[in-house]
């Protein structure tokens, strides 16, 4: 089983899309281990987006992600990272397929609603950056026997 860090960004929180987004992952069969509304600190934001440090849009990215509440989550499941990335859709909403979160609801790249980890290494670092280990709840998913062979 794989864990991933997903975060409804400030635009998604303000647009009232937390429930819609959570529902999609729940219906897919992923298991929610942690979820909280929070304001990302400048330090957390810089750690989270460290790979974009040298990009021209870095400052505006940091300023946006710290501008208001986000909904941070940890989800678990088989191939959770690949599954959630494909449900989220391409970074540019103009290229995101209909049926994906960004394809259905987002217009601009800098307001593309949701973050999802792109590798197991990123997921581990991103989860540790936003959650204490004791905030992750481990439990048996009763429907697992229906989801997995
Ligand atoms: P991802 O969120 O689809 O994984 P990344 O390349 O990791 O995409 O970029 C992180 C976030 O930075 C994007 O979701 C987007 O909001 C923002 N971003 C990426 N590239 C640009 C850009 O060229 N201009 C403005 N914002 C960008």
TrEMBL record:
Please verify whether the record's keywords include rRNA-binding: no
Positions of ATP binding: 9, 57, 85, 91, 102, 112
Extract the CDD domains matched here: NDPk_I (cd04413)
GO molecular function terms noted in the UniProt entry: ATP binding; metal ion binding; nucleoside diphosphate kinase activity
Q: State the compartments where it is located.
A: Cytoplasm
Residue span, Nucleoside diphosphate kinase-like domain: 1-138
Q: What is its EC number?
A: 2.7.4.6
**What reaction is this protein's catalytic activity?**
dZDP + ATP = dZTP + ADP; a 2'-deoxyribonucleoside 5'-diphosphate + ATP = a 2'-deoxyribonucleoside 5'-triphosphate + ADP; a ribonucleoside 5'-diphosphate + ATP = a ribonucleoside 5'-triphosphate + ADP
Give me any GO biological process, just one: UTP biosynthetic process
Provide the alphabetized UniProt keywords.
ATP-binding, Cytoplasm, Kinase, Magnesium, Metal-binding, Nucleotide metabolism, Nucleotide-binding, Phosphoprotein, Transferase
SMART domains assigned: NDK (SM00562)
Listed SUPFAM superfamilies: Nucleoside diphosphate kinase, NDK (SSF54919)
Protein's UniProt keywords contain Transferase? yes
* GO CC term (a single one): cytoplasm
Q: Which cofactor does it need?
A: Mg(2+)
- Residues bearing Phosphoserine are 122
Which residues get modified to Phosphothreonine? 91
Which coarse location class describes where this protein primarily resides? cytoplasm
Q: Which residues form the active site?
A: 115 (pros-phosphohistidine intermediate)
Complex and partners: Homotetramer.
What the protein does comes down to: Major role in the synthesis of nucleoside triphosphates other than ATP. The ATP gamma phosphate is transferred to the NDP beta phosphate via a ping-pong mechanism, using a phosphorylated active-site intermediate. (Microbial infection) Catalyzes the phosphorylation of dZDP to dZTP, when the bacterium is infected by a phage that produces the substrate for the synthesis of dZTP (2- amino-2'-deoxyadenosine 5'-triphosphate), which is then used by the phage as a DNA polymerase substrate.
Q: What is this protein called?
A: Nucleoside diphosphate kinase
- Originating organism: Terribacillus halophilus
**Lineage of the species this protein comes from:** Bacteria, Bacillati, Bacillota, Bacilli, Bacillales
């Amino acid at each position: 089983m794989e864990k991933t860090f997903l975060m409804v960004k400030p635009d998604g929180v303000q647009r009232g899309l937390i429930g819609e987004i959570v529902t999609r992952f729940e219906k897919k069969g992923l298991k929610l281990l942690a979820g909280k509304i929070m304001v990302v600190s400048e330090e957390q934001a810089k750690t989270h987006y460290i790979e974009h440090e040298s990009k021209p849009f870095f400052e505006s990215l940091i300023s946006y992600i710290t501008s208001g509440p986000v909904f941070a989550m940890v989800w678990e499941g088989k191939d959770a990272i690949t599954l959630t990335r494909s449900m989220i859709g391409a970074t540019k909403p103009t290229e995101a397929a209909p049926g994906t979160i960004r394809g259905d609801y987002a217009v601009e790249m800098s307001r593309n609603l949701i973050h999802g980890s792109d590798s197991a290494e990123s997921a581990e670092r991103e989860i540790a950056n936003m959650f204490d280990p004791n905030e992750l709840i481990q439990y048996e998913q009763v429907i697992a026997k229906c989801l997995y062979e």
